[in-house]
């Protein structure tokens, strides 16, 4: 829950009001100038192709701080990255790359387990697969696009998440946006968490099913909506819904919050409706053996009908999966357009996921010496312990400093609330100046008033990295005035220090 302070809400609204007013004023003058030039040569009878409030937002708000976004990098998204320096000759309207880069601490990538950079086990396997299979299959799955790697991956993913079968796609976004319309259509009902990812929103819209939204992560409200919808049935005809699917995420990527999965599953079982769980940010990242929120929260995967996830975060690759019953997966393979008409996942990307899962499972040979199984801490287990310790350390230190940090413990995603639009570039630019690369997010990815910086912690970060990051964020936080909830200084000065060391 955000605890937006009253005064901050007021100043934030005022800032947006001011930006909006000046933007409108500038648009107004621009219109007069265009009009006085008489021939509006842009249009020539065509309706304008770009218009609307979001276009206004882009031109008058986003463009003013666009140097904080889409920063090119010139390295793997490891604990440290090379950020390409840019310059502008027109007040940041256009930005140009230089050949210089700056080494920065990376607090922005979804590299939860550290598989994004070269890995002792994964990288050689990926290089071999590149030599053997090349970058692309140049074919869709049902033609020539299914390699032995693809089938191995699907079996492995199913086993890893604890479902009978799985299907994979070349892109996580498409996995949601193309699968949802296959699972449900006209006469069906989707009940969606209010903060679900855009890929789910677009999949739901494209499906033709009715969509109802329940309050973010609130099982009580979900039950209320469900009961009402089941009683009402379809609009006008009041026929019963053909089917109902509830869609939630494991970890909400803009909030860092864990899903209230056990409670939500209980509600869904009570009303006999299907559940669809997007584990993009939680698979690999949480749970004792990396199996996601089901493992962390003690939910039997058999109770989740459709388990979705992506390979773009914890596994350091690309693509997405759906894991479900054999029957559902077979149905998807016969009918899903993204399976039938899109070129299959790149084989080296497939190999990367296979290798990463094997490391996580300890099946990379690291627990065998001379053919004997031995009991020791595998690199995979180390990574899992590391991401958890790193995340919990970073989160508690940020909270001690007085930042408003969203999300739950164990979650590697931790948004720091900025609120005020002026604080977005202030925070981002000042961190970058001190060699810490952070991601800031604002409207339309978040509600207008709730701009934030989103920190993503990785198993690749060392304790020194995290301490450096905390020092810089603390300094910049003082400068930008975003320590909204100052905590009492500890009685014994040394105590706080010790923990940092
Ligand atoms: C919850 C969720 N689902 C789906 C996706 C899309 O996955 P991809 O980026 O792999 O296309 C994302 C991406 O960040 C996500 O956060
Ligand atoms: C342009 O970007 C630079 C670097 O991020 C920043 O320091 C500067 O203030 C920006 N200029 C304007 C006019 O916004
Ligand atoms: C790259 O950095 C060096 C040293 O800071 C500087 O002298 C040079 O001008 C920079 N080059 C560009 C293209 O910005």
TrEMBL record:
Pfam families: Aminotran_1_2. InterPro entries: Aminotrans_II_pyridoxalP_BS, Aminotransferase_I/II_large, AON_synthase_class-II, PyrdxlP-dep_Trfase, PyrdxlP-dep_Trfase_major, PyrdxlP-dep_Trfase_small. Keywords: Lipid metabolism, Membrane, Pyridoxal phosphate, Sphingolipid metabolism, Transferase, Transmembrane, Transmembrane helix. The keyword Acetylation does not apply. This is serine C-palmitoyltransferase. It is a single-pass membrane protein. One of its GO terms (molecular function) is pyridoxal phosphate binding. It comes from Musa troglodytarum. SUPFAM superfamilies: PLP-dependent transferases (SSF53383). Its EC number is 2.3.1.50. Pathway: Lipid metabolism; sphingolipid metabolism; Sphingolipid metabolism. The chain crosses the membrane at residues 6-25. GO terms for biological process: ceramide biosynthetic process; sphingosine biosynthetic process. It is an enzyme of class 2 (transferase). Belongs to the class-II pyridoxal-phosphate-dependent aminotransferase family. GO terms for cellular component: endoplasmic reticulum membrane; serine palmitoyltransferase complex. It is found in: Endoplasmic reticulum membrane. Residues 103-473 form the Aminotransferase class I/classII large domain. The keyword Cell membrane does not apply.
